[in-house]
Design goal:
By secondary structure, the chain is of the alpha/beta class. It has 2 domains: 136 residues, Rossmann fold, CATH 3.40.50; 148 residues, 3-Layer(aba) Sandwich (Rossmann fold), CATH 3.40.50.1370. The chain has 12 helices and 9 strands. The chain has a 5-stranded parallel sheet with strand order 7-6-5-8-9. Strands 2-1-3-4 form a 4-stranded parallel sheet. Helix 4 links the parallel strand 3 and strand 4. The C terminus is likely disordered.
Amino acid sequence: MSLKRKDFLGLYNVSKEEINEILDTAVAMKDILTRTVKKVPTLRGKTVINLFYEPSTRTKFSFNLAAKRLSADVMSISKSSSSIAKGESLLDTAKTMEVMGADVVVIRHSAPGAAKFLAENISASVLNAGDGAHAHPTQALLDIYSIKEKLGEIAGLKVLIVGDIAHSRVARSNIWGLNKLGAEVSVAGPQTLMPREIEKMDVNVYTDLDQALENVDVVNILRIQMERQERGLFPSIREYREIYGMNAERLERIGKNAMIMHPGPMNRGIEIESSVADSPQSVITEQVKNGVAIRMALLYLLAGREIDNEDLN
């Protein structure tokens, strides 16, 4: 099985076999990151452009590092420091990058569907780094990789996603990917932060976190966005922390074998206590490292697999 597609836009239209190919490739990529010389020539001569219309630290840095570890030429363009700030359209910006020889365009944009629009209009491969509240496939893949690395097979695991499900591209992408690999996925949060008809995504839905935590293998805690409270979607930060915050008491209840995850950045003391984030059950730091490996795998599969005599050694 091979990743036979020009672009990688989300997990909603990706097969189980393709997901497993990406995860398997990431194992080899993570091995590269443990070496003394953390670099291979796989994408030498290829150009990767990171086109970010939204602020980003972890994802942008991770893609930069992933491309450089594969020896690609990397350019990073942000909205504030380019012609985008002067009103240039997304398509015109991308066409300019393509003329300059881009092989892969990594895009983050506030509009759902922006990555798909770009992919339909340029010949370079497009990799979705987050489009509005729609999808964030590389975050979901690194989450799934982290689960598999620690717990083994995904099939049959009980995974709980906690927080603002309605506005979370991370939640959507995790649900798509985990369901395809056979996990039992549940979501928990205030009713006001649940999408309409969320049950149609084949998940169990809870508004009582303590009930949702029973017998879970993995708890993935989403960052609460302060502007949601300003819009009245939940009464107060203090109340959210008490009802939906992952604290030491709840951590003890789920047991020592359960995993704690967070896509970052964290609001310590709100959705997650520091004692939980820094506990032995937490893989939050490892998620960051796994993110580089996953993004290396995708860049390789999209841009590097056709190179003759490819070498990961």
